[in-house]
Amino acid sequence: MPRISGVNIPDNKIIGVALTYIYGVGESLSRKILIETKIDPTKKAKDLTTQEINQLREILEKKYKIEGDLRRQIMINVKRLKDIGSWRGFRHIKKLPVRGQRTRTNTRTVRGNVRKTVGSGRKPPSMPT
C-alpha cells in the first residue's frame, strides 16, 4: 500500500481515483498531476514503481497545499472571519450555513436534526374520576 504525505493509498483502485483519498486532491488535480508525471491514470496503485511514487510525492509536497497544511490554513481563515466579526464569521460561530442557504427548512444536519412539529392542537379528554 503506497503512502503519500501520510495517507495510505488503496492498492486495488486506479491511481487517478486513489490520489483523491488525499485531503485537498480532487479528480481534476489528480488528472493534472498524473499528466505532469506521465503516469497512466488507469494504472492500479499497487502496480506503481517506487520511482513513480516518489515522483508523485515530490510534486504533491512541493507544489500543492494538502493534508495538514491545508486544514491549518482553512482553520486560520475561519478564525480570522470570527475575529473581525464578519457575517460569515457569525454564521460559523452559530454553526449555521454560511453560504446563503435557507434555514427555515433543510438545515437538519447543521441544527442537529431538530424536528419541531405541532400536533392537531386538541388535547385528549381527561379521564373522569
Give a quick set of tags describing it.
129 residues; mainly alpha; Helicase, Ruva Protein, domain 3; 30s ribosomal protein s13, domain 2; two-stranded antiparallel sheet; 6 helices; 2 strands; elongated
Walk me through what this model shows.
The protein is mainly alpha-helical and 129 residues long. The chain folds into 2 domains: 3-64, Helicase, Ruva Protein, domain 3, CATH 1.10.8.50; 68-111, 30s ribosomal protein s13, domain 2 (Irregular), CATH 4.10.910.10. It contains 6 helices and 2 strands; from the N terminus they run E-E-H-H-H-H-H-H. The chain has helices at residues 15-18, 27-37, 50-63, 67-84, 87-93, 108-111; strands spanning 3-4, 7-8. It has a two-stranded antiparallel ribbon with strand order 1-2. Helix 4 crosses helix 5 (87-93). The longest helix has 18 residues, at 67-84. It is elongated, with a radius of gyration of 24 Å. The chain starts with a strand and ends in an 18-residue tail after the last helix. The mean pLDDT is 87.
